[in-house]
Design brief:
Blueprint: H1 6-24, E1 27-33, E2 38-44, E3 49-55, H2 59-62, H3 71-88, E4 93-96, H4 105-115
Parallel strand pairs: 1-4
Antiparallel strand pairs: 1-2, 2-3
């Protein structure tokens, strides 16, 4: 009998969402959130590679935020990923929240990315 905990439940939710996103045929904006940092990357599933990425560990983001695990840092990561996506020629993406609730840091990142030009 397998042990079901909050991590395995999150992975199950994330897997379901990713399958639905892949059917759309768009690049996906994937979010991962840890206690101290937040990471975002735009992934082209058709070719199987990451187009652009941003996180609170990036030098330009880390210099502007005091702590990587709050909504202000998530907003900065959202702005950064949107500007890098524009430079790479990506505008239309599907948002992959990674099994997390659309709340708090995940919501702040998504709204900042939308405000800076990403469409999803």
């Amino acid at each position: 009998m397998s042990k079901i905990n909050k991590f395995s439940r999150r992975h199950r939710r994330a897997k379901k969402a990713r399958m639905q996103i892949r059917e759309q045929g768009k690049a996906r904006l994937a979010v991962f959130r840890s206690g101290n940092h937040i990471y975002a990357q735009i992934i082209d599933d058709a070719q199987g590679h990451t187009v652009v990425s941003a996180s609170t560990l990036d030098k330009n983001v880390a210099g502007e935020v005091s702590h990587g695990g709050n909504t202000d840092a998530a907003k900065k990561v959202g702005e950064t990923i949107a500007s890098r996506a524009k430079e790479a020629g990506v505008e239309d993406v599907a948002f992959d929240r990674g099994g997390y609730r659309y709340h708090g840091r995940v919501k702040a990142l998504a709204e900042a990315a939308r405000e800076n030009g990403l469409k999803f």
